[in-house]
Amino acid sequence: MIIALTASAAFLVFINLLSIIIAGWRMERSGKPAPLVRKRPPVSIVVPARGIEPFTAETLARAFALDWPDYELIFCVANPRDPVVAEMRKTMAANPGIPTRILTGDDRISANPKLNNCVKGWKAARHDWVILADSNVLMPKDYVAHLMAGWHNNTGLVCSTPIGADRKVSGPRSNACS
Questions:
Q1: Would residue 74 count as lying in a domain?
Q2: pLDDT(171) > 50
Q3: Would you tell me the crossing angle of helices 84-94 and 56-63 to the nearest 10 degrees?
């Protein structure tokens, strides 16, 4: 009985590890640029944030360096005295050509703090296309193009699942695969 349980557990661990390896291999970034996107509508990027993380400066800088002709950044922070606001203002000052707003306040629409933080950005978005991107996502230059390339007439939602973490710090990183 114990031998059978041990063998079953070992088999399940093997299958789990194999599925992780296959998923990682399939999700590995090809290094290819995003597919050509013919329509490049303006987009609003809503970024909920809270606190300073080890890579805040890097992720903020990347948000301002996207290769998309018309986008706005809407940073949503519940507490106006949150230290991340100062970092956002510093990065905004270094990138005056990108329309950016910081919206603060704790909008209680649900029991989910992130949803509560995002709702003000969603409502304030100037464009029909809205991207929600966590503050710890390291967006590559072609992030918006990858997301828009994933949109088709029968699509309801495009998601860019983070696939890894920085070796020096924990936190998801997006590869913008859609």
A1: yes
A2: no
A3: 40
